[in-house]
Fold this sequence. Notes:
The complex is a heterodimer. By secondary structure, chain A is mostly helical. Helix content of chain A is 50%, strand content 0%. The longest helix of chain A has 9 residues, at 8-16. Chain A is elongated. Chain B contains 4 helices and 8 strands. In chain B, strands 2-1-3-5-6-4-7-8 form an 8-stranded antiparallel β-sheet. Chain B is globular and about 50 Å long. The A-B interface holds A 3-8, 10-12, 14-15 and B 4-7, 36-37, 39-40, 44, 99, 102-103, 105-108, 110-111, 113, 153.
Amino acid sequence: xxxxxxxxxxxxxxxxxx
Amino acid sequence: xxxxxxxxxxxxxxxxxxxxxxxxxxxxxxxxxxxxxxxxxxxxxxxxxxxxxxxxxxxxxxxxxxxxxxxxxxxxxxxxxxxxxxxxxxxxxxxxxxxxxxxxxxxxxxxxxxxxxxxxxxxxxxxxxxxxxxxxxxxxxxxxxxxxxxxxxxxxxxxxxxxxxxxxxxxxxxxxxxxxxxxx
Lengths: 18, 184
């Protein structure tokens, strides 16, 4: 099956986006 | 604007050591979340581990798994354990904890992430500890992959050895030393 994977850079970018 | 869904829903737990109460009564589920945005909303609004008083823990576990050995998802498993020296509380602790959480919510272990149960951080005067718990201490390939990837994610030096302990061994250890089932 598929798996939703986020790398740390993407996760950290989401922190700063409004 | 659509929130980014996580592969799993996670629960964040808090434990405060109140000796007047039963062990389980000291353990509280703070909240659950299943999107990147809700993770940050939570993380940005709680104390960082370095600010917690001694004897406290944070735990983050997949929905349906409680942060204790006895849970059916944990009892056959074990943990990769990072032990920190006292001076690391100010410098590394919060950074290591966040990297650990990002590994978990981002499914940083790929297909091996199915064996991940959660993570626990213990704030202790004698030295803080962070651990990643997996569900099956016998899955050598999975456990070893997770250990190596975790060391890499934390940026730990290659020569620093970390150990994986089966909960069954930790629970029944005679002296204070628990034997390692795996090391990387």
